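hiii so um. not sure if this is the right channel but i have a protein structure encoded as tokens and i wanna go backwards to a sequence. like what aa goes where. can anyone help
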């Protein structure tokens, strides 16, 4: 039987982000993918125009159907959409405590559209407190969630520590929006670690989803957290370098077709090794 990873995230009909991308990434690590849509977005590669969220009861009932049927080994949470969805997603995460769970706190699209009801931001950290293995905010999300404007590595460090406390879980703040060399920063409760990569000079849609879904796959494979972060950051950078324009303007990330040793099954020590 295939081991399955679950994406609880938005549905981006352009395929460049959200559930459709997450499932491609899960497959690239030889896992099966399942997805529960928290929001149906209206968007193309350039911008998000709007979204509709299904009622929270839909999320819970769909989760129950999947959980009865499939071996769910890890969960990635992306776009949440509404404040009411926060409660049900938290309930689903609590039913899966002990498994790798990565939360990508998607708050706004790069075109500026909010991807969560604004009144849910204040409750976000409290709702997810203690439920995840890792959260992966970008600089703007880290600023909104911590109250610390993250502008440089000193403020990034303060925000990483603050979000560790607020979410009661390790925090990786992505530095992709810094100019020049990019530094992602991880705090796991004992150690700060940084992961750097060069500027790719590209505006790419879907990078946060790619990173967080790679992370959950690597954690389920049994990689320790810092190694999973290092590998996922490298893998995402490789995908960004190989990403091509889709639609009329923006570059869209996809799983690179060229061989990567990261994608070979059987790495790590977890019982939940991916199947071929
Ligand atoms: N749509 C969905 C479903 C997403 O999850 C995201 C980001 O995570 C976006 C759109 C926005 O992507 P971008 O900021 O790359 O435009």
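sure thing!! here u go:
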């Amino acid at each position: 039987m295939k081991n399955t990873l679950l994406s609880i995230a938005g549905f981006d009909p352009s395929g460049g982000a959200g559930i459709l991308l997450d499932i491609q990434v899960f497959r690239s690590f030889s896992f099966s993918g399942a997805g529960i849509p928290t929001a149906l977005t209206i968007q193309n590669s350039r911008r998000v125009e709007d979204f509709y969220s299904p009622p929270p009861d839909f999320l819970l009932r769909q989760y129950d159907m999947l959980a009865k049927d499939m071996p769910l080994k890890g969960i990635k949470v992306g776009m949440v959409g509404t404040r009411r969805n926060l409660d049900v997603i938290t309930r689903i995460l609590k039913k899966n405590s002990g498994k790798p769970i990565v939360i990508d706190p998607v708050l706004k699209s790069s075109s500026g559209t909010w991807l969560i009801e604004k009144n849910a931001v204040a409750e976000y950290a409290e709702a997810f407190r203690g439920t995840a293995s890792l959260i992966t905010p970008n600089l703007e999300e880290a600023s909104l969630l911590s109250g610390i404007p993250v502008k440089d590595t000193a403020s990034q460090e303060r925000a990483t520590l603050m979000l560790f406390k607020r979410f009661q879980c390790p925090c990786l703040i992505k530095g992709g929006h810094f100019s020049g060399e990019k530094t992602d920063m991880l705090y796991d409760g004992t150690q700060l670690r940084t992961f750097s990569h060069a500027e790719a000079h590209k505006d790419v849609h879907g990078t946060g989803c790619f990173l967080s879904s790679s992370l959950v796959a690597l954690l389920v494979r049994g990689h320790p957290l810092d190694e999973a972060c290092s590998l996922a950051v490298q893998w995402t950078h490789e995908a960004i370098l190989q990403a091509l324009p889709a639609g009329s303007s923006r570059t869209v990330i996809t799983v690179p077709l060229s061989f990567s040793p990261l994608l070979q099954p059987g790495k790590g020590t977890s019982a939940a090794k991916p199947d071929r």
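oh and DSSP finds eight helices and twelve strands in the chain.
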